[in-house]
Amino acid sequence: MSAVNRVFAAQLAGLPVFGPDGESIGKVRDVVAGLRLDQQPPRVLGLVVELATRRRVFVPMLRVTSIEPNAVTLATGSVNMRHFTQRPNEVLVCGQLLDAHSTLVGTDTRVTVVDAALEPTRTRDWVLAKLAIRERSTRLALGRRRAAMHVVPWSEVAGLGLTDLAGQPQGAGQLLMLFDTMRAVDVAATVRDLPLKRRHEVADAMDDERLADVIEELPDDDQKELLGYLPEERAADILEAMNPDDAADLLSELAPAEQRRLLELMEPEESAPVKRLLAYSPDTAGGLMTPEPVVLTPDATIAEALAHIRNADLPAALATMVFVCRPPSATPTGRFVGVVHFQRLLREPPAELIASAVDTDLAALPPTASLPEVTRYFAAYNLACGPVVDAEDHLLGAVTVDDVLDHLLPDGWRETGLRDVADGVETSGTSETAEPQGAERA
């Protein structure tokens, strides 16, 4: 391994990982360390690396040949491709150790762990030699500056054993900072791998919008568990922040009494579209659709339409199509006129009315269309998004291709990731092995 004197765990998180020939392997998501009963620095066992298939695997530190400011490189050899599972004596440095509360040895000074430094030893092992800490002050004097951060040896900090981490309440500020640069689906994968206590602490610290995005990416059982943990009022707020179709899917998994209670706690204007979606079977166009596509009246201009689809919060699939309807524009709308494809919008003068660019020939889906019918529709018309229209020509919503894929994939696909694909991953530097998962962590 190239000479590196010290590297901090938070700096490692998110770094790309490359094989010996420069091929991309994935990204570092966490550092695994084995805690000890004494005060000696814990040994760093390896890295949790997320592959392109979103599966997270364990890479032993002996496989790491270099750690640079912008990348980690692996040596030639086999890496177990089974999904990473944390062992009882292990700690996830970013996921569990950061934000931990402890005290300085021999004092009553309370501190919070901000980061952990990995340092190599003469035997090629790596240890968590030092901790970046910040003093926790109980004084709330007006204008008091935030306590300075200090780097101290591991042995000078007490109360960081596994039982301590499992029993004490813990903040999540440092972990949320790491999440800032991650997509919601990647945050969801990280949260799912955390112990239940830590998962709840992270949920408590997240704002409603971010937590809603993360919950949408979790497997069904984890969605229900996390929603059940939250106070009812906040659970209703989270459902309001979710996309209506995702909120409806989650509510449909709950007991009828719990479902009714949460709908009652939601604001009427937020619960109304969710209730409409719950009226349809989840494997029909009505159950798959989102009731919030981009809807404009025929007298809107091309420039207005382009402004709507440029909205950064609009899902990519919904941005491929503008739906033209008579007033009212909220679903269910007035008479459905047709659609305008975004490529057509790019070719038209901005001052032109969208009525001049409407595609009136595209067939619409009825809300009762089955999943196979919806799938054939998307395949036949090569669409990323399609209208759902009732018998009276009212636009009810739009189905997107990602909604279709969600329901075509096997149950539990979010939990397993693309495991079947990952089973076939093999590179010149990293290949699958049949050894027991985590054998090199003994």
TrEMBL record:
A Gene Ontology molecular function term of the record: magnesium ion transmembrane transporter activity
Any one of the GO CC terms: membrane
Region of interest (Disordered), residue spans: 419-442
The protein's name in its UniProt record: Mg/Co/Ni transporter MgtE (Contains CBS domain)
SMART domains assigned: CBS, MgtE_N
Family matches, as PANTHER family: MAGNESIUM TRANSPORTER MGTE
Organism superkingdom: Bacteria
InterPro entries attached to this UniProt entry: CBS_dom, CBS_dom_sf, Mg_transptr_MgtE_intracell_dom, MgtE_N_sf, MgtE_transporter, PRC-brl_dom, PRC_barrel-like_sf, SH3_actinomycetes
Region forming the signal peptide: none
Keyword tags: CBS domain
CBS domain sequence ranges: 289-356, 358-416
